[in-house]
Specification:
This protein is of the alpha/beta class and about 525 residues long. It is built from 20 helices and 18 strands.
């Protein structure tokens, strides 16, 4: 499913009007009608009155159309226009005049005092329709509009937002000073990036995408998508009946240090669960006996340590290189430690590897002060930071990263020329070429130590099977989150152990491949084809 920026949506509107020949007033009519259809679906026992809060732009015009459909259906409707009627122009003016002919009450609200007088009405309403500000907003909400947003959030009345909750950035998902917290949002043409990224995802409530006659092909201008099972299934490696363990590749995992052998074990086993034919886990030699016990199916390779320290040293590089023949991918970092020699080992390994490599955890910390060197890598690189690791890679604060997760992921991808997986709610995958996938699966159960190690192994397992690196990242992240969703459905989202994900992975892959999972395809954004 394509995701658009506010500017791209404006471009599509203009193309539809100028090149396709659909008048703008028809698009407004389609928007209002489909919003009314969603309104009746989401609030089937709707009582009265319905209050529509309208701004003076096209968002308000859409609200006027919704008001007309409600009035024609026999509902009591009151429109609170946060402007003077004389300020309304264009298509919105046409629909405002229609309301006046139908004798639908339209109250001009031009001051904070006048707005406060409407509090009893807002509290007694069955539903508020937010038609104040649209996707074009690019500065903080101020004045009367801000007062209205605050008031909407204060009254305990359900809210349906038209196109986007007023005050929410369509591009970042951040409130612009203040934003309406809606129960339902109906967005037009295509979902916007800020509607699926936190905190925007929570502010939109249930998000509906409706067709208002904008041709779908126009959305090809966007390189950003929302992940969907239907598009990702094609990347699952085939399992021929005449295959053998060599058919599905051999992943080399470099991981583990004192106190963190579990990370290495989780990563190696996750790769096997993902279908890799063979996995070898390289660990500090003194820790090898522990991994021999923890891992049954994966092989281990004891590597030279720094003298007197249970940490991998620079001399391990040649031992790893000697073991490369027959390997098809590399995973580096889970529980690896931060000894200076280990850091140098990681940097040299990423530069020299002729195998696609996924880097996580301490592997990322090793590269934090040498990001530009990743561009020198001989093979594709996938970086999988959480916000804290991303802040170190970009030299920014975690708060800055979280304020613009999409921008941060794209910046690191461009700077490092690596595929970047910025983990978190709605994990973002960004390619050096600008392509972006925002993941739709997962839940708070994944906020647990070891979950990232499992993801690294899953990505590595697909890389070992020679899945394209960008597709491998997108598919592994989707399945990782889907596995947690399946587990949380019966266990809840608290207390899930990373090791419990491992046993579920093959089952989830089977059900995913057959189409049985996920149970609801659009579980972030629902679709309504125009009718």
């Amino acid at each position: 499913m394509k995701l658009l920026t506010a500017a791209q949506m404006r471009q599509l509107d203009q193309q539809t009007i100028a090149e396709i020949g659909i008048p703008s007033v028809v698009l407004m009519e389609n928007a209002g009608r489909t919003t009314y259809q969603i309104l009746r679906r989401e609030f089937p026992e709707l009582d009265e009155p319905v209050v529509v809060l309208a701004g003076r732009g096209n968002n308000g015009g859409d609200g006027f159309v919704v008001s007309r459909y409600l009035a024609n259906a026999g509902f009591e409707v009151v429109v609170l226009l946060l402007a003077e009627k004389s300020q309304i122009g264009g298509d919105a003016r046409i629909n405002l005049e229609v309301l006046e002919h139908l004798l639908v009450p339209v109250r001009e609200i031009t001051s904070a005092a006048a707005l406060q007088e409407q509090v009893p009405l807002l509290k007694s309403a069955a539903l508020l329709v937010d038609a104040i500000l649209g996707t074009g907003l690019n500065s903080d909400v101020k004045g009367l509009y801000r007062d209205a947003v605050v008031l909407i959030n204060e009254v305990a009345t359900p809210v349906l937002a038209i196109d986007i909750p007023s005050g929410l950035s369509a591009d970042t998902g951040q409130p612009l000073g203040m934003a309406v917290a809606a129960d339902v949002t109906v967005t037009y043409g295509f979902p916007k990036i800020g509607q699926v990224l936190p905190p925007g995802r929570d502010l939109v409530g249930r998000l509906w995408q409706v067709d208002i006659s904008i041709p779908p092909d126009l959305a090809e201008i966007s390189v950003m998508e929302l992940s969907e099972a239907s598009g990702l299934r094609q990347f699952l490696p085939r399992r021929p009946v005449d295959s053998h363990k060599g058919t599905f590749g051999h992943l080399f995992v470099l991981a583990g240090s004192v106190g963190k052998t579990g990370a290495a074990a989780l990563c190696g086993e996750a790769a096997l669960r993902m279908g890799a034919g063979l996995v070898t886990v390289g660990v500090p030699a003194s820790l090898n006996p522990i991994l021999e016990v923890k891992l049954t199916e994966a092989m281990t390779l004891p590597l030279t340590e720094v003298q007197g320290v249970q940490a991998l040293g620079k001399r391990a590089l040649e031992e790893i290189a000697a073991d490369w023949p027959g390997k098809t991918a590399l995973a580096v970092g889970p529980g690896l430690g931060r000894h200076p020699e280990t850091v140098e080992l990681v940097r040299q390994l990423v530069r020299r590897s002729t195998l696609p490599v996924v880097v996580d955890a301490d592997g990322l910390n090793a590269l934090a002060h040498d990001v530009d060197s990743i561009r020198e890598a001989a093979a594709p690189v996938i970086l999988t930071p959480h916000p804290g690791e991303m802040s170190r890679l970009l030299g920014a604060t975690t708060k800055d990263i979280q304020a613009d997760r999409l921008g941060a992921a794209r910046e690191l991808a461009e700077r490092s020329q690596a595929i970047v997986v910025l983990k978190g709610a709605q994990t973002i995958v960004a390619s050096p070429m600008g392509k972006v996938m925002i993941n739709t699966t997962g839940n708070p159960a994944l906020a647990q130590g070891g979950a990232g190690d499992v993801l690294t192994g899953m990505i590595g397992g697909l890389l070992a099977q020679k899945v394209d690196p960008f597709n491998a990242a997108c598919l592994a992240i989707y399945l990782h989150g889907l596995t947690a969703d399946v587990q949380a459905a019966w266990q809840g989202d608290c207390g899930l152990l990373a090791s419990e994900l491992l046993d579920q992975i093959p089952h989830v892959i089977k059900e995913f491949a057959s189409g049985a999972l996920p149970h609801i395809e659009e579980h972030i954004c629902y679709r309504l084809v125009i009718s």
